[in-house]
Amino acid sequence: MGFILLTVGVTFFDSIFDADNRLNAVLAAFGLSLIIIPQIASLTEEALRGIPEEVRMAAYSLGAGRWRTVKDVVFPAAISGISASVVLGFGRAVGDTMIVLMISGNAANLTLNPFSSVRTMTATIAAELGEVSTQTAHYHALFFIGLVLFVLSILVNLIVKFLVQRIGFRNNRAGL
User: Are 69 and 59 in contact (CB under 8 A)?
Assistant: First the structure.
């Protein structure tokens, strides 16, 4: 995907946005979205279809319409699967280093301009770990970046777990 965007997408997006840098954060975000959105959508669909038909029929028999059944019965029952799909999608976005490495410009800039070249933490590790000397400050800094990514992934998982438990608690209080 990174190579296709590098050969075709860069020229296409450059003609549309006329950005300062042909390789930029917007193009990298687009490339990652092409990878993770289908995965999240597919896993979410499986979670929603995993709810037994009897649950839907019970809601319909109580007089709930289609939208109310989805909103008040199916979605709360599938929230753990939906949240798992989102967490997996974000995990894949963090893990797909090569797309970002190829099309983000790979420049260590600190800017808020999305049309400038950037370098992500995962791309920094991938680009520099192979040629760094062991037991140097640079080596330890790269491992610290990996530690920061690890802590961020744990925090995202804990936040999602908290939200799922909170939604589950609210639904149990409501009698769902």
Answer: yes
